[in-house]
Amino acid sequence: MNLSRRTFIASAALAPVACSSLSYEHGIPVAQPKPLPLVRPPQVGQEWSYLKKDVFNGQTLGLINERVTSLGSPITIERTTAVGGRLPTEIQTSWGMVATDTQWARVLQFNPALPLWPLQLSNSWAQQFNTKYSVAGYPATQLNWQEYMSVQGWEKITVPAGEFIALRYQSLINYESDDPNKVDCIHKETTWFVPQIGRWAAREVSGSYRIQGQVGAVILEGSFQWQLTAYK
To answer: Model's pTM, two decimal places?
Structure first.
């Protein structure tokens, strides 16, 4: 499957339909900081805790703890539940470049790695990335992934961990499913990234797809939200 830019933009136009139920209390727009802040470098022991919610019904799904456990190449971020249960480990080839992404229903592995946040923390930045991905456990199946990341501006937001000045950006993703019956697979993410903590303060995701041969039927996937509750 060849995901051309034209195909991507046409498919991404479906995203507002798929995400119409997703709601987040938007922050207050603020001027771009001068000078631009630097992203906090990783150190072993840095931690972030997030409350995960189902946007459709408001149900709290749990608390996820993330902790930097090793540096170098790769950088590993171990993840656990509130009661200490082990979750898949996030792996970055370098700070901010994810090779093993654990934020999905299944663990995804990217080659080459993808940026987790904008490469430039500027209001005018936007870029498209093309890569291949595989589902963990099935490395031989390499699938197409096309992502358009764009900065939406700086905002002041309040989450359980406090008030932050965050860079709001959006990622529109058109990907090839490992299920051949699923087509026009769209994923949308909106993220509030805080450079000073090296992670996001809030993040929300949703997605949709169509079934091969079924005209006009868009199937919505789960819609989730994460909010920072603590960090160090």
So the answer is: 0.88
pLDDT of res. 25: 58
198 in a structural domain: yes
- Structural domain count, the chain: 1
Looking at residue 66, its pLDDT comes to 98
Residue pair 4/142 in contact (Cβ under 8 Å)? The answer is no
- Is pLDDT at 24 greater than 90 in this prediction? no
| Whole-angstrom distance, CA of residue 229 vs CA of residue 217 | 38
- pLDDT tens digits along 86-123: 999 999 999 999 999 998 889 999 999 999 999 999 99
Token pair 């509750």 is at which residue? Answer: 229
**Would 52 be classed as within a structural domain?**
yes
What domain range is 224 assigned to? Answer: 5-40+48-56+119-231
Q: Is residue 63 part of a domain?
A: no
> What pLDDT sits at residue 23?
53
**By C-alpha distance, which of 76, 91, 90, 4 is closest to 45?**
76
Relative to beta strand 28-30, strand 182-194 is unpaired
Residue 194: pLDDT band with limits 50, 70, 90 = very high
Asked if residue 92 belongs to a domain, the reply is: no
Structure tokens at 59: 């149900």
Q: CA-to-CA distance for 1 and 4, rounded, in angstroms?
A: 9
* Phi, psi at 6, each rounded to 5°: -65, -45
- Other C-beta atoms within 10 Å of 35: how many? 6
For the CA atoms of the chain, what is the radius of gyration? 17
